[in-house]
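[Automated response] Your request has been received and processed.

Submitted sequence:
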Amino acid sequence: MNGREGVKRRSSRAARAISSFASKWCRYPAGSLNPLAKIKIGTCAWSFDDWRGGFYPEHLAPVERLPFYARHFGAVEVDATFYAAPSARTALHWYDVTPPDFIFSCKLAREITHERRLRDVGGLLETFLQQLEPLGEKLGCVLIQLPPSFRPRQDEQVLRAFVRGLPQNVRFAIEFRDHEWHLPRVLRLLEEHRVCWVWTDVTPLDHQAEGAFEFLPQTTDFSYLRLLGDLGRKYGPDGHPLHAYRQTLWPRDASLENWATRLRQRAKGPSRLLVHAANHFEGFAPATARRLATLLELPVLPFPEPAPGQIDLL
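Generated structure:
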């Protein structure tokens, strides 16, 4: 069997797995797992050069980062799919180098969410999902991140049409960046079509010592939390990042303790919980994910010790 035939065969196998994935989650039985085992914690993306020395061994090749990452965390949010869906070979590589219970959450393409703003995107969505098929049962969900300018007054009917047209064989989670969407009728729409309302912590740095107080509806049989931090202090006036993400810069102890309490409560039900930390939440996403896992008494592995003088702030 040549390489191309192998890719096709494995892609077909994964496609069959993804087609039954939604029904598996629908039948997810309460009490079938230790409640905390339902929580999958990871980061937003995994391929950051800033993490060399603090998380990745200094001389680890980029192609080895994902398998190394997957030894520490059970899930990852894939930011790269926001810019371009992976090739079949790339997606199959991701599948093959991660453990059987590893979960990928892939961000929907920006052409669909930001450029076309969910309008006339049926063909684009179908193509995007086809390119994710090699991930099979490891595709936890597709994250629909909407722009802040996407608002009910001009966009609600577009959202309704889009949600109603979503395929049932893939799980979806949707993140609103405007509080005007906090409407009972929007919750009913997501509940009806089993789309997850994403919980997002964007607490400003001025309030970093406080627990997050967010709108936390549960609209389907799993939950999705994004720990993003103060988005207003992420980039400078020139558009470049203000920080190097190499170590924890502004600990959010109260927030993590608050979220740990909420996650414990949610985990008592049938829901699976996906949690992803961004670098900007505390300055170093791997440490945030590990800190939260420790609060939840989940097993964690130590990070490699950096060499003296290896971590310096820019």
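Summary generated for your ticket: The chain has one domain: 38-234+242-295. The mean pLDDT is 86.
If you did not submit this request, please reply to this message.
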